[in-house]
């Protein structure tokens, strides 16, 4: 890369790399590893066969035969992220193999200890999170760039679609993340033209995120999502199916409770909220701040940095610039629309799907176990992260709208 004289060109990539963010991929892990070094073959072997092992009810016995491996020989961020992805998927399969009525109270030592070690090294909790499920779980199938997941769980094409559409939403956000950095620089330099352009780019990126989210309908079957996939994203905090949490054998004698994977763990919307000065209700804010503990540490730091940056809203208000005010409101409107559309998706994939599943549940011949499609009932009104899903989503959408600057 050629050196450049001006500092303006170098500020942007420097600001991103400081927080392990990519120019091209944003919060996504760029080109994740797909295989661990040879000594970790036993983990990879089980991970690549998870859907079949769960469907045949053999995963737990396979895990019990797994050798005790230390995570200390893993090197670099990409090896650690792949190990966390692999161990988190194995853990979710182990926990939920027999559905919500067949949970276990203890995660065996040969899985719990290395999972804990990798989690400590990354600053992530020892459970499947958005950082594993989406950010680090993608690969190119061929040179044309067709995408696939690295590790899977029951749910077939619908699971693959759910992960990859969520990934495309993250990818669509990248110009918006870069626009935030440009906007903060513009505020510091009192450059209203650059700020206006950055706000236009942010609004456009949020609109593109909504377009990406709409593709969920084409790739994810609501019945499969609700009855098969959802339980494997469920955690052991605020979950009636596992009220006492989980003992990580060899780590702690006391059970520990962690929230399941949730869209609220995506750093993108936290960053947008902080930048646009959106203030959610006390209850929603408490939940969202708890979800930050499930983000990679550098991504958390990025949100904090935006929080401490000069206030965009105050700058726009004090500027008295009608164009800036309109551009700001377009960003708010685009974000509220995105959140409204998310509610539409959740209605289809959880509420409507739950009603249909309830109607089917009474039918005879319903085999146990999530691979057979027995839907979980413990989280009917809750998200996999443990929030009361509709009151939370509507509250967050409404407080977003309240962020508008009135004329």
UniProtKB/TrEMBL annotation:
Keyword Transcription regulation in annotation: no
Segments for region (Disordered): 361-385
Gene Ontology terms: cellular component: cytoplasm
Domain of life: Eukaryota
Annotated InterPro entries: Indolamine_dOase (IPR000898), Trp/Indoleamine_2_3_dOase-like (IPR037217)
Record keywords: Dioxygenase, Heme, Immunity, Iron, Metal-binding, Oxidoreductase, Tryptophan catabolism
Molecular function terms, GO-annotated: heme binding; indoleamine 2,3-dioxygenase activity; L-tryptophan 2,3-dioxygenase activity; metal ion binding
Any single GO BP term: L-tryptophan catabolic process to kynurenine
Record flagged with keyword Metal-binding: yes
Coiled-coil parts of chain: none
SUPFAM superfamilies: Indolic compounds 2,3-dioxygenase-like
Entry binding sites for heme b: 342
Signal peptide: none
Family indicated by similarity: Belongs to the indoleamine 2,3-dioxygenase family.
PANTHER family on file: INDOLEAMINE 2,3-DIOXYGENASE (PTHR28657), INDOLEAMINE 2,3-DIOXYGENASE 2 (PTHR28657:SF4)
Name recorded for this polypeptide: I23O2 dioxygenase
Organism name: Pygoscelis papua (Gentoo penguin)
């Amino acid at each position: 890369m050629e050196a450049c004289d001006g500092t303006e060109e170098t500020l942007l990539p420097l600001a991103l790399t400081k927080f392990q963010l990519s120019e091209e991929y944003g919060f996504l892990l760029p080109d994740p590893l797909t295989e661990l070094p040879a000594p970790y073959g036993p983990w990879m072997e089980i991970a690549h066969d998870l859907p079949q092992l769960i469907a045949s009810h053999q995963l737990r016995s396979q895990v019990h035969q797994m050798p005790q491996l230390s995570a200390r020989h893993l090197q670099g961020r990409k090896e650690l992220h792949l190990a966390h992805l692999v161990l988190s998927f194995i853990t979710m399969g182990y926990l939920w193999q027999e559905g919500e009525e067949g949970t276990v109270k203890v995660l065996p030592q040969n899985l719990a200890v290395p999972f804990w070690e990798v989690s400590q090294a990354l600053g992530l909790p020892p459970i499947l999170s958005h950082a594993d499920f989406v950010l680090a779980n993608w690969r190119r199938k061929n040179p044309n760039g067709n995408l696939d997941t690295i590790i899977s769980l029951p749910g077939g094409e619908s699971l693959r679609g759910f992960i990859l559409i969520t990934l495309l939403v993250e990818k669509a956000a990248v110009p918006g993340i870069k626009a935030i950095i440009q906007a903060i620089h513009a505020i510091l330099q009192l450059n209203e033209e650059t700020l206006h352009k950055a706000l236009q780019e942010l609004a456009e990126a949020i609109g593109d995120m909504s377009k990406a989210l709409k593709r969920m309908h084409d790739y994810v079957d609501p019945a499969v999502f609700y009855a098969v996939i959802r339980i494997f994203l469920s955690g052991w905090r605020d979950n009636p199916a596992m009220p006492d949490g989980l003992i990580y054998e060899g780590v702690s004698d006391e059970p520990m409770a962690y929230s399941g994977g949730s869209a609220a763990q995506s750093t993108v919307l936290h960053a947008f909220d902080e930048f646009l000065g959106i203030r959610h209700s006390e209850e929603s804010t408490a939940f969202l701040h708890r979800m930050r503990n499930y983000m990679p540490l550098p991504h958390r730091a990025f949100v904090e940095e935006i929080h401490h940056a000069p206030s965009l809203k105050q700058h726009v208000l004090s500027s008295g610039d009608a164009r800036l005010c309109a551009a700001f409101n377009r960003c708010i409107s685009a974000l509220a629309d995105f959140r409204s559309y998310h509610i539409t998706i959740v209605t289809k994939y959880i509420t409507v799907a739950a009603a249909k599943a309830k109607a089917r549940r009474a039918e005879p011949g319903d085999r146990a176990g999530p691979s057979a499609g027995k839907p979980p009932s413990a989280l009917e009104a809750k998200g996999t992260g443990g929030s009361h899903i509709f009151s939370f989503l509507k509250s967050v959408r409404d407080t977003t709208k309240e962020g508008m600057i009135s004329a």
